TrEMBL record, chain A:
Source organism superkingdom: Bacteria
Native source organism of the sequence: Kribbella antibiotica
PANTHER family (alphabetical): ABC TRANSPORTER PERMEASE PROTEIN MG189-RELATED (PTHR43744:SF12), ABC TRANSPORTER PERMEASE PROTEIN MG189-RELATED-RELATED (PTHR43744)
Transmembrane segments: 12-30, 64-90, 102-122, 134-156, 177-199, 237-258
Main location: membrane
Subcellular localization(s) per the UniProt record: Cell membrane
A single Gene Ontology CC term: plasma membrane
The name this protein goes by in its record: Carbohydrate ABC transporter permease
Family per similarity comment: Belongs to the binding-protein-dependent transport system permease family.
Claim: rRNA-binding is one of the keywords in the record: no
Keywords: Cell membrane, Membrane, Transmembrane, Transmembrane helix, Transport
One Pfam family linked to the record: BPD_transp_1
Automatic annotation (TrEMBL), chain B:
One of the Pfam families matching this protein, by short name: BPD_transp_1
First and last residue of the signal peptide: none
Main location: membrane
CDD domains: TM_PBP2
ABC transmembrane type-1 domain sequence ranges: 67-285
Family: Belongs to the binding-protein-dependent transport system permease family.
Listed transmembrane segments: 71-94, 106-126, 157-182, 203-227, 264-286
Record carries keyword Cell membrane: yes
UniProt entry keywords in alphabetical sequence: Cell membrane, Membrane, Transmembrane, Transmembrane helix, Transport
Cross-referenced PROSITE patterns: ABC_TM1
Source species: Kribbella antibiotica
Keyword Cell membrane: yes
Name by which UniProt lists this protein: Sugar ABC transporter permease
Localisation: Cell membrane
Amino acid sequence: MTRRVAGQGFAFVWAAMVLFPLLWSVLSSFKSDADIFRSPWSLPSVWHWDNFSRAWNESHIGRYFFNSVIVVTGGVLLCLLLSAAVAYVLAQFEFPGSKALYYVFVGGMVFPGFLALVPLFFVVQNLGLMNSYLGLILVYATGGMSFSVFFLTAFFKTQSKDLAEAALVDGCSHWGVLFRIMLPLARPGLVSIGIFQFLGMWNEYLLPLVLNTDENRYLVTQGLANIAVTQGYHSDFSGLFAGLTISIIPVLAVYLAFHRQISAGMTAGALK
Amino acid sequence: MHHGKYRFVIGLLLIPLGLYAVFVVSPYLQAFPIAFTDWEGLSASYRYIGFDNFVTLFHDPVFWVALRHNLFLLVSLPTVIVTLSLFFSAILNYRGGIPGAKFYKVVYFFPSVLSIAVVGVLWQFIFEPRSGLLNGFLRAIGLGDLANLWLGGRDTALASIMAVVVWGGVGFYVVLFTAAMAAIPKELYEAALLDGASPLQSFFRITLPLIWNTVQVAIAFLVIGALDQFALIKVLSVGPGGPGDATQVISLYMYTNAFSYGKFGYASAIGVTLFALNMILTLLTFRLTRRERVVY
């Protein structure tokens, strides 16, 4: 019994350590600058909702958020589309070189991103895609392909070929089989990998730092980091906390709504 | 029929393969030749200089400092994160799950869904010496002497950043380990209990051996992750990389060389070295953590 209580105690302490900084930042986002410094521990004496509008408009968090949504949505959808096409072919068809092709895609997982960073910068620059949504979307989508192809190939392989063959015999085209039968059946796999890629791309920091240097195109991660760095000069701490809260709350809300699929999807990547 | 099949296969593969070749394969392949050039600045002209970049790197004191910091993270991060995660997983799974185990798992996972840059900015405030949460907390409970410069102190900067990595990392591995533990048949624990085994004994004799594969994957992930540490250090450290290279790591040094100094050849040589280290460490980790696979 005492062991159980001790266990509860430890579990609770870690939960507090995780939650406390997050709560603190949410509370601070409602305070005035003076309040943040004078009493970091108390509830706000006056609830300053204006911090949020200031962060959203003056610090451009709203625009950064919009940029992030466009790039990440585009990146995830394109990545799923490209990877599903490749994975379907690799799982269902045998042709000369199909094994080699599989390793070309899956091999990408072994290489650290830093190795490709300098050449990638010039590839994107030479294509005229620096500081563009399209450039980031293409880089994100292709960067996610290795793992997605690996995951989805395994997924498509578990699906029986009988249904596809029956449809072919009945005169359905290969495209029809893909879009009417195989992709709908693969939905759970596509959803897991989509969530996995979404979180990864939403968190990406290095690639936009290198490929996206125009302040108007900043993503949330870049924008926040930048505001924090230049904070010393503006000293609008409450506004920064509000920005922080704006970028924490929606992600946590999405997570709470889908937490089962998300933790399953993220850890599935590690267990494969 | 066959004709249609090949047209279909080519039609499906053409665009994905083309984009993958341009944005993934070609950059990786180009990285190696660039590492052997003296390419600097934005000029397009460069010469091949053989292994000169690697020789320079070998004599570059900053590189060795960075490597030492990476090695420190490489040992400390897996050790601390895996130990803590196993500890909390065992607690949450104790006797088929303590009350609130589900809630704890959801909360522990929070930092894993937050962007690293957001986590970095948040902790910048926590470590802030004057009005930050940490020093405020220490003063409030009468331990004001322990209040520190944290990120601004030469001796505390790297450890502070490491603590943030631990804070952010434990939840993910708790979810991973508890999932693996849930798959262990309950009868094994019941039998052990009948034989008079203590909870500690059941953990080391039953739980750990049976989830070892998962632990091994976790260690490999963390070892490679320790080489890839970048975003948190870029956001949190003074400089970044400071104070006085106290938090310099290989990836940051490569980034700075490429995009602040424009030394693209030298940066690529650092990238190739990082890649080689990555390969060696991955193989080494799997070799060192290999054990007989337990089947149940």
